[in-house]
Design the sequence.
């Protein structure tokens, strides 16, 4: 009954969901493209065999699961790979990472008739859902067609668990319909068990985000960017920033420049629809602003470099001395601190890190990350790091060791996938 009520409410709300897509398409036109795919209507991919279907919500999940996708393409060339995302930025990442080796579709909205159409057309042999993107009708439709579903790299914060618990009549059946869950930590697994996951379906494999291996090309591009900006200058990156964080970092940067006039800021907004407004905001703080999307080459005179492109975050990190990871002052739970850590960068984050709570806490304890509570403490910590090279190096080494010591989740996850495909 709970799912029927949910389906009724979703059906009633569908015009509003469609209107939201149209509205978002005003700033990000890609949202208006391929809309029929969200109704389960997509061109026939002409799969020669049943595909392995991987669902990743957006950019972060796509990047996290990319190493597994690469392994599957190499280990199972007889099986096509179908990837679905919810966002155009996720779609762009799939295309940039895999080109024609992977078929991309937008994930249908969660109504039974859309899923019947999608599954009948694509007939996947296995579904891998990344992290916590669970939908009642999606899982029910997979169960109806006897499609195994693996929840990979599963994470569930205490805050999210409380939200799922409020809808226990929907949550418990969804967890019962999963075939296996590969949880990032024992704490994530315990929360899923409390919500109704059967213990025999749970495997604690660790986070595959530890298995990140910075590409040599990114390191080389980052080194080249640093030469352009100026090798002797201190460089701070503010990465994956959200609304309000850009202004905060720009204010702090401006004050730091009083003591370090050569301090350069690389500012990378999280969402493409904000690129233009962030660049305009930056020009209120400096006349020496350079935008990557405009193919403008930075120089030693550049004060603020706007990273307004997609898929180049690692080379931006590689060019910096200190990394501030955004989403941590915006109430959105923070973004992945392991990316700069893997590149041996000292990491600073704000108070909102519930998306990576355990990783953040462990990285703090290991000495690779400093967590601050407000603008004043952010300025204080950045001031300390800019003025103390030995401290930066110590944090950088600790961050890198933390990543290296926790690798291995990708191997464990692939073993689970191998087992499901062998069925």
Sequence:
């Amino acid at each position: 009954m709970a799912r029927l009520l949910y389906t009724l409410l979703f059906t009633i709300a569908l015009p509003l969901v469609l209107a939201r897509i149209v509205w978002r398409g005003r700033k990000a036109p890609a949202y208006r493209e391929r809309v029929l795919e969200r109704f389960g209507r997509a061109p026939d991919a002409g799969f020669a065999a049943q595909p392995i279907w991987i669902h990743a919500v957006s950019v972060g999940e796509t990047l996290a699961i990319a190493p597994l996708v690469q392994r599957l393409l190499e280990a199972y060339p007889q099986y096509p790979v179908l990837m679905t995302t919810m966002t155009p930025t996720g779609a762009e990442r799939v295309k940039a990472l895999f080109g024609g080796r992977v078929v991309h579709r937008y994930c249908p909205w969660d109504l039974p008739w859309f899923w019947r159409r999608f599954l009948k057309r694509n007939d996947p042999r296995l579904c891998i859902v990344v992290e916590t993107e669970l939908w009642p009708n999606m899982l029910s439709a997979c169960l109806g067609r006897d499609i195994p579903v693996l929840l990979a790299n599963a994470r569930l914060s205490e805050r999210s668990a409380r939200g799922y618990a409020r809808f226990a009549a929907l949550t418990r059946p969804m967890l019962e319909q999963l075939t296996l869950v590969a949880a990032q930590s024992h704490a994530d697994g315990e929360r899923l068990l409390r919500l109704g996951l059967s213990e025999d379906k749970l495997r604690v494999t660790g986070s595959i985000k530890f298995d990140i291996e910075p590409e040599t090309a990114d390191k080389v591009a980052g080194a080249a960017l640093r030469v352009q900006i100026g090798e002797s200058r201190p460089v701070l990156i503010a990465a994956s920033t959200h609304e309000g964080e850009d202004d905060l970092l720009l204010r702090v940067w401006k004050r730091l420049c009083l003591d370090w006039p050569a301090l350069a800021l690389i500012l990378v907004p999280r969402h493409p629809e904000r690129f233009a407004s962030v660049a305009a905001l930056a020009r209120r703080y400096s006349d020496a602003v350079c935008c990557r999307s405009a193919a403008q080459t930075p120089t030693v005179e550049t004060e603020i470099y706007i990273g307004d492109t997609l898929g180049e975050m690692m080379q931006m990190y590689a060019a910096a001395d200190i990394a501030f990871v955004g989403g941590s002052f915006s109430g959105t739970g923070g973004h992945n601190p392991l990316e700069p850590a893997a590149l041996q960068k000292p990491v600073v984050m704000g108070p909102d890190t519930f998306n990576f709570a355990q990783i953040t806490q462990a990285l703090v304890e290991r000495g690779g990350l400093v967590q601050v509570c407000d603008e004043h403490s952010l300025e204080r910590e950045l001031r300390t790091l800019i003025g103390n090279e030995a401290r930066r190096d110590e944090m950088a080494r600790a961050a890198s060791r933390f990543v290296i010591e926790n690798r291995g989740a990708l191997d464990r996850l692939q073993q689970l996938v191998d087992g499901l495909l062998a069925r």
The longest helix spans residues 2-27. Residues 22-206+408-422 form a domain with the Rossmann fold fold (CATH 3.40.50.11720). The chain has a mean pLDDT of 95. The longest strand covers residues 235-241.
